[in-house]
Amino acid sequence: MLPTSPARGSAWGPVHRSLSLAFITYSSMKSILVPMDEEEKVVLDYSSDPLMTDGSFQKSILSSIARAGDAIEKLYGGSPQDIEGVVRDGKIYVVQTRPQM
């Protein structure tokens, strides 16, 4: 998620220094890299993605993301972090984190 993205959709973000969530924005990607034997254009359709259509799923997964972000910031002495990650099958994978400037 990119909090500054003007992408259409529903999004939630952490309220500073709490595990509460507040509406911000949601970013989506128009293309992605996927492993394949030959090049092929893949159209991404988020219209049936539960993050876009299911309010209780949104709150659940985004609360999990907020808790993960809070835990990561605590590991780094409370320093705000720019955290990138992936959610797949309900599991959160952190790709990288760095101090937020």
Automatic annotation (TrEMBL):
GO molecular function, one term: ATP binding
Start and end residues of each Pyruvate phosphate dikinase AMP/ATP-binding domain: 34-100
Positions of transmembrane segments: none
Residues in the signal sequence: none
InterPro entries recorded: PPDK_AMP/ATP-bd
Family: Belongs to the PEP-utilizing enzyme family.
Name of protein: Pyruvate phosphate dikinase AMP/ATP-binding domain-containing protein
Species in which this protein is naturally found: Deinandra increscens subsp. villosa
